[in-house]
Amino acid sequence: MNLSRIVITGVGLTAPNGNNLAEFRQALLTGKSGVELFETRHMGKVLAGVCKFEATRYQTRKELRVGTRAGSVSIYCCREAVKDSGVAWDLVDKSRVGIYVGITEHGNVETENEIASLATFNNDTKYWSHYHNPRTVANNPAGEASLNLGITGPAYTLGAACAAGNIGIIHAAQMLRLREVDFALAGGVSESIRSFGIFAAFKSQGALAHHEDPTKASRPFDKARNGIVVSEGGGLFALERLEDALARGAKIYGEIAGYAINSDASDYVLPNPERQAQCIQLAIKNAGMTPDQIDILNTHATSTPLGDVQECQAIAAAFAGYRLPHINNTKGFIGHAMGAAGSIELAGNLPSFDDLVVHPTINVDELDPQCALPTLVLNQPLAVKRVDAILNNSFGMLGINSALIVKRYSA
């Protein structure tokens, strides 16, 4: 098949340590964490990655009351991506625009809030909000963005646990190649910190991070790591076919080179390094590349004792016999943004095509010997001679794996 080349022409994001790509990248290069104490129903203060974007830039206060946090994140990121793309938005045929938002879950926050509110009215259901249904449907974050931007093309979510950010981008590339749409806004969003149930569940699993210093709680690959820091955020990209981007003289951040999605089919929670390695290898094969052509590999590693080790095993197996790329991780800075993790983390690495710097993995005081891959970039940025291809790992519960490769654009 003669497939169209798909490129990234805009980036919209909010992360706990930055509300646009420039801020976020600066935080990654200077070691600035966005993790802090956060008050949560039934649990008191927990460690979380909290976003502080200006929601009223694109929504009225009434719209914020009616809508959801995930919808607000989606609107902010979509608007920022459109603006960053430089497209003449007023002239765009909105029926040919698609919104594809990856999510881990949706609806927990709104249901928890309604139950808490109902308790103050002696559980009389006449006080249950009539907005509850549109707030909790799975397509809500994409649907709210379509309403806000006037987009009449396909707008829906893709539930893929913590692999969802990558998968939103992958799906958009496929839809552009199928010519179902001409312009796509895609990636992932998360409102996870607004749900006490997510914190409670991780705590019951013994997987919730704790540390006296919030900024050091998320510490992938460190010997003393003890769990996940839950975060919110969003990363949505403007994607186009190359010929359309060139026709309007768009800035091109990078080109979608290849990708793969597979499943472990082995456990509800525990990852399978053999399947992860196969996913990485398949993405490289689908990109028409060899492992030694990958220059940066952003790991999924969430700071859990077992998960980090297993991903390192998967990487070692996938690159066996080849030069390892520079390996980094973003979650030490922001925690785990769940459905948004893959897209936010990819965004943070895209500037490496221009500045030839690999952002580090932070909070590694003592590297776990089982995670000691020789090309890990630890604690300080690394200047390099070449960055032509970035591989982004993103894995999720129930064994869903994704690997996405973005390469430097060249004619």
**What percent of residues adopt helix (DSSP H or I)?**
25-40%
Taking pLDDT < 50 over at least 5 consecutive residues as the criterion, the unreliable ranges are: none
- Overall number of strands: 15
- Quick check: average pLDDT? 97
Oligomeric state as shown? single chain
- What's the arrangement of strands in the largest beta sheet? 5-4-6-8-1-9-15-14-10-11
Rough shape? Answer: globular
**Name of the level-1 CATH class of the largest domain:** Alpha Beta
Short description:
This protein is an alpha/beta fold. The chain has helices at 21-30, 61-66, 69-85, 108-119, 132-136, 140-149, 164-177, 196-204, 242-247, 273-286, 305-318, 331-334, 341-349, 352-355, and strands spanning 6-14, 35-40, 44-49, 97-103, 155-159, 183-190, 230-231, 233-241, 254-263, 296-298, 326-328, 357-358, 382-383, 389-396, 400-407. The strands form 3 sheets. Strands 5-4-6-8-1-9-15-14-10-11 form a 10-stranded mixed β-sheet, sandwiched between helices. A 3-stranded mixed β-sheet has the order 2-3-7. Strands 12-13 form a two-stranded antiparallel sheet.
